[in-house]
Amino acid sequence: MTAQTELPQAETTGSCCGGGGCGSTPADAEQGxxxxxxxxxxMTCGHCEGAVSGxxxxxxxxxxxxxxxxxxxxxxxxxxxxxxxxxxxAVDEAGYELTGxx
Length: 102
Prior knowledge:
With about 100 residues, the chain is of the alpha+beta class. Helix content is about 40%, strand content about 25%.
């Protein structure tokens, strides 16, 4: 019984590629998520980060958003690829400009 309990744990550990290919994390490969980094202009503070994150997080399939004002980069984790125009509309709604993918 102990061997059966340990076997699934051994299967979930391994290299960073974990069968998902280099560049994806084991969590991304296991959960089937997509990570996209966008460039947004106009963010200057934590309030800006929150406004952009809040609007993007409302898009269907989005599971995580991290905006960094100092770099203008917004990292979005979603269940599938997002439509760039939908992301652009969300950023516009927050009062900022999506300039493209980083």
